[in-house]
């Protein structure tokens, strides 16, 4: 399996989720920082590097963000918000059956990570660089998103739809399928994002002991 490289991530345009409320200079700062952090890593991209890419003085950046850590915290928050909202929307539209709810959650999880690979890399690889007080809001959203998946799995187990000895381990494996996408997936006519999302959903159902085409009665 091919792994991602900084040059590959740099070659793809860094785009914030449509739900991101930032605009104007603030949005340009975030998009440029996203590109730099994804391609170089947070610690290897300085405020001076960011200012140079934006053709601004470093002091001008501080008018919008008090530190490089605050830029990262905003990106991490935006990523977690987009992910959580995507999961909630998918779940609300999936009906009451655990199999369809699970399929909807996995498809949304896959689509976000495949559509925004730079953001996924920065959110998941660089959140550890934040001090606790800046990471806390995003970590709370992460817990809420994990709880959505666990609730569906437990509901399916209670109804006899899913058969799995350790729900936490399987939930982590399902999440990991999406987390690794930026490091290998490139959309192509042979495998586009929607097709990949469908494949991930079927794999998740198999992990949970549900046949791919099984419908609850």
TrEMBL record:
Annotated DNA-binding residue span(s): 46-65
Residues covered by the HTH tetR-type domain: 23-83
Keywords: DNA-binding
Pfam families documented for this protein: TetR_C_24 (PF17932), TetR_N (PF00440)
Entry keyword annotation includes Transferase: no
Family matches, as InterPro entries: Homeodomain-like_sf, HTH-type_TetR-like_transc_reg, HTH_TetR, KstR2_TetR_C, Tet_transcr_reg_TetR-rel_C_sf
Molecular-function annotations in GO: DNA-binding transcription factor activity; transcription cis-regulatory region binding
Keyword NAD set for record: no
Protein name per UniProt: TetR family transcriptional regulator
Organism of this sequence: Corallococcus coralloides (Myxococcus coralloides)
Classification of source organism: Bacteria, Pseudomonadati, Myxococcota, Myxococcia, Myxococcales
């Amino acid at each position: 399996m091919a792994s991602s490289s900084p040059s590959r991530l740099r070659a793809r345009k860094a785009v914030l989720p449509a739900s991101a409320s930032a605009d104007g200079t603030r949005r340009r700062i975030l998009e440029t920082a996203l590109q730099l952090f994804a391609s170089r890593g947070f610690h290897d991209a300085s405020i001076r590097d960011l200012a140079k890419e934006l053709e601004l003085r470093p002091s001008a950046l501080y008018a919008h963000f008090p530190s490089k850590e605050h830029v990262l915290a905003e990106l991490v928050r935006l990523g977690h918000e987009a992910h959580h909202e995507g999961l909630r929307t998918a779940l609300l539209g999936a009906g009451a059956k655990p199999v369809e709810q699970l399929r909807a959650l996995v498809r949304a999880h896959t689509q976000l990570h495949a559509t925004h690979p730079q953001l996924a890399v920065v959110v998941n690889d660089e959140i550890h660089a934040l001090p606790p007080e800046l990471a806390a809001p995003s970590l709370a959203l992460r817990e809420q998103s994990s709880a959505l998946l666990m609730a569906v799995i437990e509901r399916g187990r209670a109804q006899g739809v899913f058969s799995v000895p350790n729900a936490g381990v399987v939930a982590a494996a399902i999440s990991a399928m999406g987390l690794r996408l930026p490091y290998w997936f490139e959309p192509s006519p042979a495998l586009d994002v929607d097709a990949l999302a469908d494949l991930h959903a079927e794999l998740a159902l198999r992990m949970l002991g549900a046949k791919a085409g099984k419908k609850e009665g």
